[in-house]
Recover the amino acids of this structure.
């Protein structure tokens, strides 16, 4: 359960500030039931509280170039103190339908309750896990396909410290020193006919262990993370409501009724 409040403030014509805060509480209970005798064993019953304040500043330095600067301050019940995560990005209109973009984000992610407290025979939780922290870079190009589609190509590089992975030798979860994932992603959204759309994306990634407590793992691929993925789908738009048109129609109707 959680909530978020956000405010968009247009300071000037080419300057926008977005700021707010959010909070969420994740609670989970895990019970194992033996079907033979009906006994139940509770693996874990706990919660994690996470809160943050954030701000993002967008400025058009020239008509074709937009910069954005972000800052997020996280407070979490699992750690002492708070974590600051900056972000910066740029978007350049190379042509009327072609856009170049690049971003840097400082990442922070806490382990899940299952990773921390699981007591199943296949995976034991590790309450000493540290949150993942890292840096993420991406650069890409977007190409509009007239008024009916968009194709996006992105190169990304993520370097994560204390990456959480499964330890098969001990059937538990562990923090690996450092993992770097380089990859590319290709995405396509396309309108086939009126109200009928196609979408798809292909992601190729190469996660490599840079640092580990086990020297034999260094320069090896991170287990269960190196698979490429492809997603394809079709969607049909049944109903589309133009809120602005609806509001205008309501005002006209009231005016007509008043004049009758």
């Amino acid at each position: 359960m959680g909530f978020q409040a956000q405010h968009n403030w247009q300071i000037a014509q080419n300057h926008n500030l977005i700021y707010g805060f959010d909070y969420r509480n994740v609670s989970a209970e895990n019970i194992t039931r033996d079907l033979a005798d009906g006994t139940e064993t509770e693996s874990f019953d706990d919660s994690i509280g996470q809160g943050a304040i954030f701000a993002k500043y967008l400025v058009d330095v020239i008509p074709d170039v937009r910069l954005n600067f972000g800052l997020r301050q996280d407070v979490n019940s699992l750690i002492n103190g708070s974590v600051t995560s900056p972000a910066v990005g740029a978007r350049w209109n190379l042509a009327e339908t072609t856009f170049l973009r690049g971003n840097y984000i400082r990442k922070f992610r806490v382990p899940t309750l299952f990773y921390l407290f699981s007591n199943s025979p296949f995976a034991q939780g590790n309450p000493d896990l540290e949150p993942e922290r890292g840096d993420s870079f991406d650069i890409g190009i977007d190409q509009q396909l007239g008024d009916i589609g968009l194709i996006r190509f992105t190169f990304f590089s993520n370097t994560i410290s204390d990456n959480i992975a499964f330890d098969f030798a001990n059937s538990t979860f562990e923090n690996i020193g450092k993992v770097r994932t380089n990859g590319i992603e290709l995405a396509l959204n396309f309108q086939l006919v009126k109200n009928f759309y196609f979408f798809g994306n292909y992601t190729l990634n190469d996660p490599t262990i840079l640092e580990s407590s086990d020297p034999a793992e260094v320069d090896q691929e991170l287990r269960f993370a190196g698979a490429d993925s492809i997603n394809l789908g079709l969607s049909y738009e049944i109903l589309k409501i133009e809120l602005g048109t609806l509001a205008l129609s309501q005002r006209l109707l009231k005016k007509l009724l008043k004049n009758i």
User: Anything to note?
Assistant: The chain has one domain: 2-259.
